[in-house]
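User: Hey, quick favor. My workstation is busy. Could you predict this chain's structure for me?
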Amino acid sequence: MRPRPQIPSEIEEFRDERWRREATRQIETAIAAERFIEQIGFAACLTDSRRPGPSLYVAVCGRRDAVMPRNVQKDAEASLAWTLKDEIVGRGKIYYGKLARGKAMFLAPRMIPYFHAVWGVRRSDEKRRLSRHAQAVLKVLRKEWEISTADLRDASGVKDRTAFSRAMDDLQAAMIVMPSEVFYQPKFTYIWTLGVGRFPEALRRRVGRETALREIARCFLAGAGMTVPGEMARVTGLPRPDAGLGNRALVADGYATMPASGVYRLAIRST
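Assistant: No problem, here it is.
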């Protein structure tokens, strides 16, 4: 196995600033979190330093080495990150859902067309690409528009919890369905809605796949400063060949350089 390339110290410092891994720039409010996601383009929700890429939880902690504790219920930072996630979902200004490979991610509105071009399922392809259970759930949502988890299970007839969860994950990954609110009383539940209801222009905008891969790569590299083999694929959920296509397009544009195989750096990096 080849040794994983080390991230230079100046790149780590660049990421500290861009990804809010600094104690003086911690995220404490939903508005600040939304501003952070708008600036960075996309971010994971509750990943920690053991996973690459920008993360709301790490930004709440404000440190590079943040690790999610086992007992998250009693951890103030984990609780705040979770609360901010719920507030962001309810405010409806940032896209949130389980996207590729089940990754819970936030997307700035400007990035929605590019992610949708890669992973979205258009209506004409739904019968071919969505499971029978996912189609049953979607049929109810298109009639009701917003509905709670329990009511959606009953109305769709997908009452097996595992099958229902898989259907919802598939619909979120296809960027068709997203949560719109979270309630904890009288019991915990999500309210689900159609993504096109909240972000109609972004989800209806047509973008070519090559353009989408390039712009997702551009967005990540702008915040990361550099990417090593496999890193962008892990962060975004893209297959590694697609991540490579996006990065090489940046080299062709003069936006990035490739000092070694699979390693890409910003051609001009602001300080």
